[in-house]
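Design request, C-alpha cells follow.
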C-alpha cells in the first residue's frame, strides 16, 4: 500500500504581498513555504505509515526551486518524491494544474489499496478545486474536509468536517481525500531524517515524460489551456488602528454611543 500526497509550494502571505504592474503576484520577490493544508496531509500520511507501514510518496508541480520543499518532506519521513516541472506547465489555472498532476499521479501508479491525499486548499488561491478535480480525472471516489483518517478492513473511514458538525464516511480504496488542519499538527524532521533525505533521489517529470499519459494534452495545460485567468491581484489597504475605550461611567458610554452613531452603526 502507498499513499501519494500532492503538495504545493506557495508564497508566504503572512507578510506583505508583492504585486507586479500587470496585477499578478510577484512570486520571485516573496518567501515561499509549504502550503499549510498540504503539510497536514503529509502528517496524515506519515501517521498511517507509522501505524500500517505503508509507503509515502510526495508529488508537486512547480519550478526547480521546489526541490528544497521536497527535501524537507523527505526529512519528515516521506519515502519518494516527484517534481513535475516544465515551462509548458507555466500559467496553469486549477483546471490545467489538475490535468498535469493527475497525469503525474497516473504515471506513478495508483493501485487497488492506495490513497491519494491533498490539502483542502492552497493559501495563494483558496479555490479548493485542484484536489477534487484530480479525483475526477483519475476516476477516483473522493472525500473532502477530512479531520481524521483510519483504515479498516480494506477501506478508509474518514471523519469529515462540516460547518455545523461532523459526518463519518467509509469508502473503498483507491480514493482521494482532502485534509484540513484539524487532522493534526505536522511533525518536525528528525536529525536522522535530515541526513537521510539527501540520499533519496527526486524524480523530475517533464512534459516529455507525461505527454503520452491519457490524462494530458498539449492544449489543456499551461496558460493556453487554462479557461480562467486572474485579471488583477492587489494588496488591500491597511485599516486604521482601533480605538479602545475604558471605564464604566456615563461619560464613557456617551462617548461610545456618539462614536457608533457617527459611523451609522446605531
Amino acid at each position: 500500500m502507498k499513499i501519494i500526497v500532492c503538495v504545493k509550494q506557495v508564497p508566504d502571505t503572512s507578510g506583505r504581498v508583492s504585486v507586479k504592474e500587470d496585477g499578478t503576484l510577484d512570486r520571485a520577490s516573496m518567501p515561499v513555504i509549504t502550503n499549510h493544508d498540504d503539510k497536514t496531509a503529509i502528517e496524515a500520511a506519515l501517521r498511517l505509515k507509522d501505524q500500517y507501514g505503508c509507503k509515502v510518496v510526495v508529488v508537486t508541480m512547480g519550478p526547480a526551486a521546489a526541490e528544497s520543499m521536497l527535501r524537507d518532506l523527505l526529512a519528515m519521513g516521506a519515502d519518494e518524491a516527484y517534481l513535475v516541472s516544465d515551462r509548458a506547465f507555466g500559467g496553469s489555472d486549477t483546471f490545467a494544474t489538475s490535468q498535469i498532476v493527475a497525469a503525474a499521479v497516473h504515471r506513478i501508479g495508483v493501485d487497488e489499496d492506495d490513497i491519494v491525499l491533498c490539502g483542502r486548499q492552497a493559501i495563494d488561491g483558496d479555490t479548493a478545486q485542484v484536489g477534487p478535480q484530480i479525483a475526477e480525472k483519475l476516476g477516483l471516489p473522493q472525500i473532502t474536509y477530512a479531520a481524521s483518517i483510519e483504515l479498516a478492513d480494506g477501506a478508509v473511514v474518514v471523519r469529515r468536517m462540516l460547518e455545523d458538525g461532523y459526518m463519518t464516511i467509509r469508502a473503498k480504496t483507491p480514493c482521494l481525500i482532502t485534509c484540513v488542519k484539524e487532522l493534526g499538527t505536522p511533525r518536525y524532521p528528525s536529525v536522522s531524517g535530515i541526513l537521510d533525505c539527501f540520499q533519496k533521489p527526486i524524480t523530475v517529470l517533464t512534459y516529455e515524460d507525461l505527454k503520452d499519459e491519457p490524462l494530458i494534452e498539449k492544449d489543456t495545460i499551461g496558460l493556453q489551456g487554462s479557461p480562467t485567468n486572474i485579471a488583477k491581484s492587489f494588496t488591500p489597504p491597511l485599516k486604521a488602528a482601533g480605538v479602545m475605550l475604558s471605564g464604566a461611567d456615563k461619560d464613557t458610554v456617551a462617548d461610545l454611543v456618539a462614536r457608533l452613531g457617527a459611523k451609522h452603526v446605531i
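Comment from the thread starter after seeing the answer: thanks! The mean pLDDT is 89.
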